[in-house]
Amino acid sequence: MTAPAKKSAINPVIIIGALFFIFGFVTWMNSVLIPYLRIACELNNFESFLVASAFYIAYLLMAKPSAWVLKKYGFKNGMAIGLAIIAVGALIFIPAALTRVYAVFLLGLFVQGTGLAVLQSASNPYITIIGPPESAAKRISIMGIFNKFAGVLAPLALGAVVLKNIDAFTANLAKLSPAEKITELNELASRVILPYVLIVIVLVILAVLIYFSGLPEIDTDHEDENVAAANSGKTSIFEFPHLIIGVIALFFYVGAEVIAGDSIIGYGVSHHIPLSEARYLASATLICMVVGYFAGIIFIPKYISQQKALVYSAVLGTVLTVIALFAPKWVSISCIALLGLANSLMWPAIWPLALSGLGRFTKIGSSLLVMGIAGAAVFPPIYGLLVDAMTAQTAYIILVPIYLFILYFAAIGYKKGKHVVAV
Length: 423
Prior knowledge:
Layout: H1 3-8, H2 10-28, H3 30-40, H4 45-48, H5 50-61, H6 63-99, H7 102-129, H8 136-162, H9 166-173, H10 178-190, H11 193-211, H12 225-230, H13 241-270, H14 275-278, H15 281-299, H16 306-326, H17 329-344, H18 346-355, H19 362-372, H20 375-389, H21 399-411
């Protein structure tokens, strides 16, 4: 990039950073919603983890419509549309809270996930393509700091409102008559209304600002000579096996990330830590992710390639999981929190490795990667089933094959079907 190009990229990076903060805040509120709705709607572990399923399944079902939105309206307008859709989903939480019907909460989460599918389909390839490919993981790491810093704040902010005095509340609940219990649970459900009204206001304001911003469009259909030559004769995205393996790796990774972030509160409670204290554990996981993102900014690509960073992250994730399975209380909980560190550089590395060399197929490739986010709709409920069938600790065995597949992509899969140099 030339110096003027670098200068012009500063403003877009700030704007995209704000977007990453917003969808990080919305996403990581789920770590509080899972235990909160488990009490308010009287759910078991499997049912409570349907919060993640309803939210993330939208990435699978709405990926193709998201690609259509971006093709028709472009990146900038697509981001504004995504924010508006998230605002609608947040609004649905009001009737959900007033009726205390779990299905309505899940509908609101699905609509929020739909908006995020559009937003992610636009923002992730945008930040990947806006600068040199070898430093894409560094830019995504910067975005990750915005995203996970919001993730640190979200459980603290929402938890302070909806989980206030929750241990005393649940202890008192068992002593009440059925009619009194319903009244108390309705009061608990109503706590979520004010936070989500504030979220709607912020989302609408940001959507308007994005729409009227000077955010430049990027031509993803343009290919340089080398990429065009390599892609000559290719008519389908499925002719890029490294991308397909990357989508599967992302599917596995997001499942692991959400399990680590959304289950740790319940895991702490399973070790007899009061919920009023355990709610802070989700923020600990996100803090570890922020530390990892700072490491990515410092070391990638100056000291380590994106590909090597992914290899080391997958190995670390495997090791921490194995220790967590057998270690005593606080060591095991600490290992789950430290999975945030192992997970931090996976998203920044998988995206550029999977999109490498796609040229005019970049938008559809990005849509497939966004579909991979649906892994978070599949693996957390499976974890919940394992918790109900075993224990919260042994259920983490599900993470081992996930990290091993990511290791395969990092070491071998990213090269499939093309001659590459690690980026």
